[in-house]
Design a protein that fits this description.
The complex is a heterodimer of chains A (330) and B (333). Chain A has 12 helices and 14 strands. Chain A is α/β, with parallel strands linked by helices. Chain A folds into 2 domains: 7-189, Thiamin diphosphate (ThDP)-binding fold, Pyr/PP domains (Rossmann fold); 201-328, Rossmann fold, CATH 3.40.50. In chain A, helix 8 links the parallel strand 10 (209-213) and strand 11. Chain B has a single domain (3-309), classed as Rossmann fold, CATH 3.40.50.970. Chain B has 13 helices and 7 strands. Classes of the chains: A alpha/beta (330), B alpha/beta (333). The complex binds thiamine diphosphate. Thiamine diphosphate (TPP) binds next to strand 4 of chain B.
């Protein structure tokens, strides 16, 4: 990514706020809905100060009713608005599952009604959230045609993908990783930019093994790549950024080059996005493969609370290092 | 109050127009039922037989720019919004000329250009959606309103309650109709809820409500008008319970043996078309000759619709892949 003008260093969380603020200033159709996002500024303070700037109606505090306010966002979107809905935690998106998969996802296919809306879903573990504040629910929606899914790993992508999501004519679920909120910073361009939906990015070039990943796991993969370099194993890290529609071209190109692939995600292993990509690689890139396609993911359990349990549950740098060593032997 | 006493507040032409739509709805649904019996329609057929006055009444009270989010027994509203009998039959036959081009069936008809939000099978799902459309109008300071409808059964779902609550809290310009036809599929009202009037549900949300005779098109129209006026003035939503009876099975495959025959006999006497004819006659607005002329007109239109639909092409298989995602130019300006 190129930075043409020097801006302020911002966190991943601030990048999200900036995107919302700029889009609301740019386009009066954009408005926000969610629980406690008004005077309080949201559970994570993403919308701090927004209500003062944009008023009570464009930063709309809703009753505690995810299905109701997602449904309302769908209705407003069909009438030409651009709602951005905040889930207080991604976990609560299950209460709105029906509206998302049956109404938002299918309306355009069924009767041609575009539903330009964004659902922001703060997801992921490593924050001692336990089974109901740490989930990675992207797999549920990955299987629902009509939805776009994005999951940025850096402040640059967080801002650019949110802007692209707001400008997209379809329902987009924006998975923002809670662990990254205040842990990573970057200097962003001062001018307007977007990160196009549907484009993965090679975050680190390499020659031996491709690690296909997204969200917070990108940073683990980069760490592992650094460690493995000393052993003479060169990892290429592909950050999907958009989960649906998948950028197959970038993924296939990387794997055809390296001939080995590791799927890495924080979501449960069975039926996860890694499983689907592994299947596609087997179908499309079989001739290029020099080893088994490996998956590193969370075990098939809910996210446990207690520190040693959660540490055991989450994928670690050492898991990637071990998998890469195993693959390198082929 | 006697029907004519109430109905005298409605213009003759409006009342006659409603009668025409009652007839058109009945004729169209009877014809669709016949096509189903001939095996020409695959899938379910849901009619509003005996309940036509509800959607004809509320849709007649709306302006062009307003929006409806109907449920599965609102055929009259589709017709009033300008969906033609031919399009409806084409939809039932899975033809490309149906409003969903064969992607969806029966009464799952939507078209934003004609102010119709497409019905989703999942009952009550479109109530929050209707509320959101009303929110858009409020955000933009427009004086448009939304009318949505649900069955008595649909009011047991959480989405009904979430929508009612949100609409009341934010005083949104939406009118909630409930077609209380005593049954949800085979489930009678007393196993659906522990109250006798669905309208009682509105109290929990601080929302005003009305109970009307759902078989009296004039009464439904006037109650819709009152609620619409209030919504346009910024005074918030209203809940209107229409007491009626489902005269057919849940869908045409269902003989509805679980409904006592005496109950059906009793309600047959209150047929909305008979009632409308009585009103029009008593007010001196029309006579038998007018009714027969309108009946003939409706029949002709429906027959033309059958011809249109039968001659329309079916979609080609690969069209199944089209339209999963929208393009920017399809977003409503
Ligand atoms: C959420 C949901 N559950 C079940 C069904 C299947 N179903 C279709 S219509 C119906 C009964 C509906 O009753 P009511 O809401 O009273 O409307 P009515 O058909 O009586 O007009 C049922 C159970 C459905 N469509 N949606």
């Amino acid at each position: 990514m190129t930075t043409t003008a020097v801006g302020r260093e911002v966190t991943y969380l601030e990048a999200i706020s900036e995107a919302l603020d700029e889009e609301m200033s740019r386009d009066e159709r954009v408005f926000l809905m969610g629980e406690d996002i008004g005077p309080y500024g949201g559970a994570f303070r993403i919308t701090e100060g927004f209500q003062k700037k944009y008023g009570e109606w464009r930063v709309l505090d809703t009753p505690l009713a995810e299905s109701g306010f997602v449904g309302a966002a769908i209705g407003a979107a069909m009438m030409g608005m651009r709602p951005v809905v905040e889930m207080q935690f991604a976990d609560f998106i299950s209460c709105a599952f029906d509206q998302i998969t049956e109404v938002a996802a299918k309306n355009h296919y069924r009767w041609g009604a575009a539903v330009p809306m964004v659902i922001r879903a703060p997801f992921g573990g490593g924050v001692h959230g336990g089974p109901f504040h740490s989930e990675c629910p992207e797999g549920w929606f990955f299987h629902s045609p009509g939805l776009k899914l994005v999951a940025p790993s850096t402040p640059y992508d967080a801002k650019g993908l949110l802007k692209a999501a707001i400008r997209d004519p379809n329902p987009v679920i924006y998975f923002e990783h809670k662990f990254l909120y205040r842990r990573i910073k970057a200097v962003l361009p001062t001018e307007d930019y977007i990160v196009p939906i549907g484009k993965a990015e090679v975050k680190r070039g390499g020659t031996d093994i491709s690690v296909i990943t997204y969200g917070a796991m990108v940073h683990l993969a980069l760490e592992a790549a650094e460690a493995l370099m000393k052993e003479g194993i060169s990892l290429e890290v592909v950050d999907l950024r958009t989960l649906m529609p998948l950028d197959k071209e970038t993924v296939f190109e990387s794997v055809r080059k390296t001939s080995k692939a590791i799927m890495l995600h924080e979501d449960n292993k069975t039926g996860g996005i890694g499983a689907e990509i592994a299947a596609q690689l087997a179908e499309e890139c079989f001739d290029s493969l020099d080893g088994p396609i490996l998956r590193i993911a969370a075990p098939d359990t809910p996210v446990p609370f207690s520190t040693p349990l959660e540490e055991y549950f989450l994928p670690k740098v050492s898991d990637i290092v071990n998998a890469a060593r195993k693959l390198a032997a082929y | 109050m006697d029907a004519p006493v109430v109905a005298k507040d409605i213009k003759r032409t409006d009342l006659l127009q409603m009668y025409y739509y009652l007839r058109l709805t009945r004729t169209l649904e009877d014809r669709i039922t016949a096509l189903y019996r001939q095996g020409k329609i695959v899938g379910g057929v849901y009619t509003s037989n005996g309940m036509e006055a509800i959607s004809v009444g509320y849709a007649s009270a709306l302006e062009r720019d307003d929006i409806i989010a109907p449920f599965h027994r609102d055929m009259g509203a589709f017709l009033i919004r300008g969906i033609t009998p031919g399009e409806v039959i084409a939809q039932y036959l899975g033809k490309r000329t149906g409003p969903t081009k064969g992607k969806d069936g029966n009464v799952h008809i939507g078209d934003l250009k004609r102010g119709v939000i497409g019905f989703v099978s999942h009952l009550a799902d479109n109530l929050p959606v209707a509320t959101g459309a009303a929110l858009a109008f409020k955000l933009r300071g427009e004086s448009r309103v939304v009318i949505t409808n649900t069955g008595d059964g649909g009011t047991s779902r959480g989405d009904f309650h979430e929508a009612m609550n949100f609409a009341a809290v934010r005083k949104l310009p939406v009118v909630f109709f409930c077609n209380n036809n005593q049954y949800a599929y085979s489930t009678p009202l007393q196993l659906q809820m522990a109250i006798r009037d669905v309208a009682d549900r509105a109290k929990a949300y601080g929302m005003p409500s009305e109970i009307v005779d759902g078989n009296d098109v004039a009464a439904v129209y006037l109650s819709a008008q009152r609620a619409i006026r209030k919504a346009r003035a910024g005074d918030g939503p209203t809940f209107i319970e229409c007491k009626t009876m489902r005269m057919h099975g849940h869908s045409e495959h269902d003989s509805a043996k679980y409904v006592p025959r005496e109950l059906l006999e009793e309600w047959k006497k209150k047929d909305p078309i008979v009632k409308a004819e009585l009103t029009l006659t008593q007010l001196g607005y029309a006579n038998e000759a007018t009714f027969r002329e309108i009946e003939e007109r409706a029949k002709k239109e429906v027959e033309a619709g059958v011809e249109f639909a039968e001659q329309s092409p079916l979609p080609e298989g690969p069209e199944a892949l089209e339209g999963v995602f929208a393009d920017e130019h399809e977003v409503k300006p």
